[in-house]
Amino acid sequence: WIAENVKDLDLGNIMLCGGWYGMLLFSHIKYKQCLSIDIDPSCENIAKIIHKRLVMEGWKFQAITDDIHNINYDGHHYVVKRDNGTDCELYMKPDSIVNTSCEHIEDFNKWWDKIPPGSLLILQTNDGFDIPGHINCVKDLEDFEKQTPFTTTIYSGAKQMPKFIRFMRIGFK
């Protein structure tokens, strides 16, 4: 769904919030580098294994374990391990911020306020209020649009899923 709506865009450096295993990259989107951030420590190593070729290609993909509330979206320094076990400090200034897990964000407004104006955002949430862990659902697309006010909207839509409606917004803050 994302790939269909960004096929004409180059997302540049992507910060993928709630990245899980970085599966977004299998959507054939155009990008330069991707930093996948997930609070679940079990995701980091699996993501690096899945995307080993991209990790080896000049850190085109990297996964870290962190809380997205701790990230500096103006430009973030982070540390990864080299194959020999030594630390390597890296830096990413995002061109786009992707969060397909907005329904899981505690204190969404605090996170939203950290995003710099002018940032390209790709955001998804849903109306699955009864699903465990879904603490930031919205009742409809209009609610999601109010929660994520864009200066320029590229796409705003809904998709019926088996257990809930998924909402997606693409645009500039």
Task: Please give a structural write-up.
The protein is globular and about 50 Å long. The chain has 5 helices and 9 strands. Strand 4 and strand 5 form a beta hairpin. The mean pLDDT is 91. The strands form 2 sheets. A 7-stranded mixed sheet has the order 3-2-1-6-7-9-8. Strands 4-5 form a two-stranded antiparallel ribbon. It is α/β, with parallel strands linked by helices and 173 residues long.
Topology, element by element:
Layout: H1 2-6, E1 13-17, E2 33-38, H2 41-50, H3 52-56, E3 61-65, E4 76-81, E5 87-92, E6 96-99, H4 108-114, E7 120-126, H5 141-147, E8 152-160, E9 165-172
Parallel strand pairs: 1-2, 1-6, 2-3, 6-7
Antiparallel strand pairs: 4-5, 7-9, 8-9
